[in-house]
Amino acid sequence: MFDYGNEKYPFMEFPKGVEVTLYDQNGKKNFIKSDYAITFKGTQIIDLQGNVKMTSDGGQFLETEQLYYDQKNEWFFTEKKFKFTDPLKGNTSGQGLDFSKDFNRINFQKVYAEINEAE
Q: What does the alpha-carbon distance between residue 46 and residue 37 come to, in Å, rounded to a whole number?
């Protein structure tokens, strides 16, 4: 980790990547791994880059090349291509999405999907 806290726009850089565990209010976990990350202190935005993989306690799985996390609003977003897998709802791929930390609210942009039929 490199800390550039004395710069005009302070940030911390993680050139070897990060592994992050996020907890929700019920103790459920999301795991995130990326090859590189940078966090901007003034904005509370984390920029995760390179082989970004996110897994939730509920079994949802996201893969993309870049993912931003807004720590203040607990919101993720990307404009890059992604693949999202939900064990109950199927697979969705596309370009661009944003979602809440707990995956309860997901907004897809350009997508194509395989959806499991409801029983």
A: 7
